[in-house]
Design goal:
Layout: E1 26-28, E2 38-48, E3 55-65, E4 69-71, H1 73-81, H2 90-105, E5 109-116, E6 125-130
Antiparallel strand pairs: 1-4, 2-3, 3-5, 5-6
């Protein structure tokens, strides 16, 4: 069954230069009556420090319980890659990813966790949640 909202899958697509230009695509949740969890994990996320211009690396984990839609992973990969040359603070990035995913898929629950590489001996982890009251047990 084809999904009209999924345009990147199976096609060569250029990377986006910024998350402002990127598009998160979604497809219908095939089992909307069953509560379940989706975990998307990458060690390859990077962005730029807005003060120094130095790259920041991050182990990023996105965990969500879908409602009507699921995020299409190729579009997510390209969306995340759009942060590579994007200057933003770590906390802003985690919250932006949460907001953009909520706008794209309206999940029952969603958590974004970014574990950023240490700077000056301090490792920063930022966790943001959408509808924590719906967090699965």
């Amino acid at each position: 069954m084809a999904d009209n909202n999924v345009s990147m899958l199976g096609k060569h697509t250029a990377f986006f230069s910024s998350p402002d230009d990127a598009k998160l695509e979604a497809f219908p949740n095939r089992t909307p009556g069953r509560p379940y969890i989706v975990v998307l994990d990458t060690h390859e996320f990077s962005s730029l420090c807005p003060v120094t211009g130095q790259p920041d690396s991050c182990h990023l984990t996105i965990t969500y319980s879908p409602a009507e839609k699921c995020v299409e992973t190729k579009s997510l990969k390209y969306y995340l890659a759009s942060f590579r040359n994007y200057p933003s603070f770590n906390e802003q990035i985690v919250n932006r990813i949460l907001d953009d995913l909520v706008a794209a898929i309206s999940p029952a629950w969603l958590k974004v966790e970014g574990r950023f590489g240490a700077r000056g001996g301090i490792q920063l982890t930022c966790i943001a949640e959408h509808q924590p009251e719906n967090r699965p047990a």
